[in-house]
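Sanity check

After download, print the first record. It should look like this:
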Amino acid sequence: MRGLLSPSVMCADLLHLADEIEKLDKLGVEYLHIDFMDNKFVPNITFDTNMVRSFKKPMRNIKRDIHIMAFEPQQYFDAMEIGEGDLVSVHFEACKDVHAVLNDIKGRGADPCIAISPDTPVDTVKDFLDEVKAVLLMTVYPGFAGQPMAPKSMERLSELRKIVDDSCKDVKIEVDGHVSWDHCGEMRERGADIFVAGSSSVYGKDYPLDKAVERFYTLVK
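Expected structure tokens:
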């Protein structure tokens, strides 16, 4: 099975988002990565809950990959209309009761995902593998696009792959942060399944979107 692509909408053409989503849908892209920030857990904001909800309207086959960088993320679930088909990532570092939040996501019919920042030990995820469909490994510090990769990210990815494999759980690994042309192939080799692609690859200036998506899939097959 090839790697799965989740282009970051914050790097897309924001003036033509409906057209952009339609293009990605026709190209067979699996996910649309939507970042939500509260300006507290991370010092930035992107789309509000109304925008996160509105992305559902133009989608046909592509699914929302909602990355919530906010304290106590469950307070936003109703407004985002979290539900079937969504992949929803919440940060270990931002939840008082991670298990309760993951179960809330699952109870809404969505796929729960636990996200960890670069300074969080990878083995932290062991306590949640029974409850999640994916683990989101941040390879940059959450909050801003265009950062260089955090040190030891590749080693952390290999460590996470071993932890998941040893658990015998059907859990995918998602990578987010400087998923560039130079890095995505190695990330695939080290065990990544889902790739959040932004300005350093799919939304760079080297290729039109259709050619960029085609090249990306070639590199993560």
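If your output differs, re-run the checksum step. Summary of this record's structure: Helices lie at 17-26, 49-54, 77-80, 98-107, 153-167, 181-189, 209-219.
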